[in-house]
């Protein structure tokens, strides 16, 4: 993330925020994107970026968000799709800035052709990338100072949560993406979050782990016997501690027997935005409560 240039000075927002007549150029995944003035009609096709826009004070500038942007509750949700984006439908909202996390079906080029500024800010692969993307959105929308404050608060909360977790050495875990046993390895963004605690990921040694998102076999999972099970599919798939305990063989898992099954909010556990500290805190709480005699 970086601001490449300022065409006409800065507003009183601080940090080079576009205001009346002030243009900024932000380096996004789709190259140098110039926003000619502070945007008033923003469209977000990414739930994570929707959360960020509202968290940095740009909510009033957002006129439409995609169908999966469920936080905050007052975000102007529409039928716009981030998975099958329709440029014509997006343009119908007369946006002066569109934010996406994926360039599906050439949506970026389609919008650029009609002179609509687009910021492509893909799924973060590291914590620093998550912070950088928040700063990009802050600069692009005229809320650089708020973005800087948010990232600072996130860093502090995450550091505090990790410090409160206690000793996790030797503690293993499994993070469930769905009830078909799809999971993450330590190389993924989610896996790196768990890595802050020194937790051992049972998926790292699984077949096809190199892709980052392997599907575990029931036999492999039961043999690995994780100390902690984190369910990131409570909403999508209706999973909870009671449900997994009824799965064949699961009642004998260490995590099930010792109360180490953690029910997460799917959205919080899968996004890299402002609520990331809540995910980290949930892990810290689970680590702290884990039996010492494991």
Element pattern in H and E:
EEEEHEHEHEHHEHEHEHHEHH
Radius of gyration: 21 Å
What spatial form do the alpha-carbon principal axes imply? Answer: elongated
> How many distinct helices?
11
Residue share in β-strands: 5-15%
Instruction: Give the structural class.
Output: alpha/beta
Strand order of the largest sheet: 5-4-6-7
Average pLDDT for all residues:
92
What fraction, in percent, of the residue positions are helical? 25-40%
End-to-end gap: 43 Å
pLDDT below 50 for ≥5 consecutive residues: which ranges? Answer: 1-21
Major β-sheet annotation: 4 strands, parallel
Strands, count: 11
Describe the 3D structure:
This protein has eleven helices and eleven strands. Helix content is 34%, strand content 14%. A four-stranded parallel beta sheet has the order 5-4-6-7, sandwiched between helices. A four-stranded parallel beta sheet has the order 9-8-10-11. Helix 5 packs parallel to helix 11 (276-289). The protein has 294 residues and is α/β, with parallel strands linked by helices. It has helices spanning 47-55, 87-91, 107-113, 127-141, 144-164, 189-195, 218-224, 241-245, 254-257, 266-270, 276-289, and strands at residues 3-6, 24-28, 31-35, 42-44, 62-65, 97-100, 118-120, 172-176, 200-201, 228-231, 261-263.
């Amino acid at each position: 993330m970086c601001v490449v240039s300022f065409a006409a000075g800065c507003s009183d927002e601080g940090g080079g925020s576009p205001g009346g007549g002030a243009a900024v150029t932000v380096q996004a995944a789709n190259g140098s994107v110039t926003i000619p003035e502070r945007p008033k009609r923003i469209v977000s096709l990414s739930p994570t970026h929707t959360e960020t826009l509202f968290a940095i004070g740009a909510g009033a500038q957002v006129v439409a968000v995609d169908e999966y942007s469920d936080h905050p509750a007052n975000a102007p949700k529409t039928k716009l799709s981030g998975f099958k984006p329709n440029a014509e439908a997006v343009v119908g909202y007369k946006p002066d800035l569109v934010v996406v996390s994926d360039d599906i079906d050439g949506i970026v080029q389609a919008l650029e052709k009609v002179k609509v500024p687009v910021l492509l800010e893909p799924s973060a692969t590291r914590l620093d990338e998550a912070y950088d993307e928040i700063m990009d959105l802050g600069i692009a929308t005229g809320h650089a100072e708020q973005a800087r404050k948010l990232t600072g608060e996130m860093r502090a909360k995450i550091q505090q949560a990790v410090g409160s977790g206690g000793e996790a050495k030797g503690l293993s875990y499994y993070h469930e993406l769905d009830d078909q046993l799809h999971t993450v390895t330590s190389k993924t963004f989610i896996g790196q979050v768990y890595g802050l605690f020194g937790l051992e990921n049972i998926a790292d040694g699984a077949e096809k782990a190199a892709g980052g998102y392997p599907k575990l076999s029931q036999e492999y999972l039961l043999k690995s016997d994780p100390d902690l099970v984190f369910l990131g599919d409570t909403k999508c798939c209706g999973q909870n501690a009671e449900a997994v305990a009824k799965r064949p063989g699961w009642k004998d898992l260490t995590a099930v027997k010792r109360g180490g099954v953690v029910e997460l909010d799917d959205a919080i556990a899968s996004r890299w935005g402002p609520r990331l500290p809540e995910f980290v805190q949930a892990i810290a709480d689970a680590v702290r409560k884990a039996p010492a005699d494991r």
